[in-house]
Every structure is written in structure tokens, then in C-alpha cells.
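Q: Here's a chain of 148 amino acids. Please give me its 3D structure as C-alpha cells.
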Amino acid sequence: MNVLKDLYRDVIVDHNRAPRNFRKINDANRVLEGFNPLCGDKLTVYLKLDGEVIKDLSFEGSGCAISVASASLMTERLKGRTRAEAGKLFDEVHALLTKDGMADTDQLGKLAALSGVHEYPSRVKCASLCWHTLKAALADSHQPVSTE
């Protein structure tokens, strides 16, 4: 089990140090900010939808390692997927973060690196901020997302 924890930690560190899709999408058709007042994580999600398909997805902002890594993993996984697939993955990641490992980690791939977060309740909001912001952007909300 220590090998798996080490692998998961390495994924988080890698995605924090070199976040994927950390950029502004100039022609995004959905842009939404998210903020975690508890620890100061703040990000902007840029989404380019073409019908039901997520053509491009990125983020900018600052936050702790878990927040940045979660956003990086999210954008990497969802580009090219449908809104329905994004909704299903939101539910799976939410279960992973909040329900003591109730998600199917085999299906989550690299996102399974977030599995240890549920052990630290104060960190769940860090890992889920980008997911809630994306969900609101997909619903075409124009209200900033707060984890409070």
C-alpha cells in the first residue's frame, strides 16, 4: 500500500509543479471563477464547448498543491469528453473525495491520486473547488463559485 501512496503523492507533486492546461483560452465560451475562502485557493476555469463536447478546458489561478493538481488532472481528463461524461466524472470524483474511497479508482486513472484527500476534511474543498467551478460553468452559471 505504501507504493500506491507514493505513486499518488508523485502524481500530485508532478501536477502541482507542472500543471497541465494552465492557461487562458481566449475564445472560451464559458469562464467562471472559483474561490475557497478557508485557505485562499482561487482559480478561473476556461471552457470551450462545441455543442455537447468539451473542445478545450483550462484554468489559471493560485492555490495549494492539492487544488492545483486537481484542476490540472481535471482538465487533462475532460478535454474532448461530453458534458454527460463530465457530469458522471464529477460524481465519481466527489464520491472519491467525500465517501471514504467509495469510487472505482480503476476507472479514475490518475484522478485516483486524490483518494487520500477524504482523510483530511479541510482539504476536500481544495480538491473539489475546480470540479464545482466546472460544474457551474457547464450549467452556464455566471455566479462565482465559493466552497463556503
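Q: Can you summarize the key feature?
A: The beta strands are 30-36, 41-50, 53-62, 145-146.
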